[in-house]
Design brief:
CATH topology: Lipocalin
CATH architecture: Beta Barrel
Shape: globular
Number of domains: 1
Helix content: under 10%
Number of helices: 0
Number of strands: 12
Distance between the termini: 37 Å
CATH class: Mainly Beta
Largest sheet: 4 strands, antiparallel
Radius of gyration: 15 Å
Order of helices and strands: EEEEEEEEEEEE
Strand content: over 45%
Strand order of the largest sheet: 1-2-3-4
Length: 143
């Protein structure tokens, strides 16, 4: 598996994520600084074919989305164990009818908040989610 996303872990290792062969799941892994697998978690996909990854505080966030369709979902995992903590579908730009479409999602964070930023054919959005619960904190759109 070639990682589609790699971010540093605090111990000198890395977190990786990639859509698995066949596209039925996204594999998220934590690797130690020696290359040993610390944990692995398979996340079932719902037609998503791209993953963005971010490590913030004690969590790893994976944004799963399709590059040719609207929408995304964010999954928070415990950085030490890989256990799922919450899952949320950001409001994004909402439902869009289309025949050609593009979608790109990025993640960032600050203490207590994970930020989901998206650029879709129908516009751009920035949504802040509570890092502990995944509940929406704020949402803004730009056309």
């Amino acid at each position: 598996m070639d990682p589609a996303a790699v971010v540093p872990a605090p111990d000198g290792g890395v977190f990786t994520a990639a859509v698995a062969e066949g596209g039925h799941r996204v594999d998220v892994r934590r690797m130690s600084s020696t290359g040993a697998e610390v944990w692995a978690r398979g996340l079932p996909t719902e037609a998503e074919n791209v993953v963005a990854l971010h490590h913030g505080e004690d969590r790893v966030y994976a944004a799963l989305y399709a590059d040719g369709a609207t929408g995304s979902r964010v999954v928070a995992l415990d950085a030490d164990t890989g256990e799922p903590l919450w899952e949320r579908r950001p409001e994004g730009v909402g439902a869009v009818g289309h025949s050609k479409y593009s979608n790109s999602v990025e993640l960032s964070s600050r203490p207590g908040v994970v930020v989901v930023s998206g650029r879709e054919s129908a516009g751009e959005f920035r949504e802040e989610l509570d890092a502990a619960t995944g509940r929406p904190v704020s949402h803004e759109m730009r056309s």
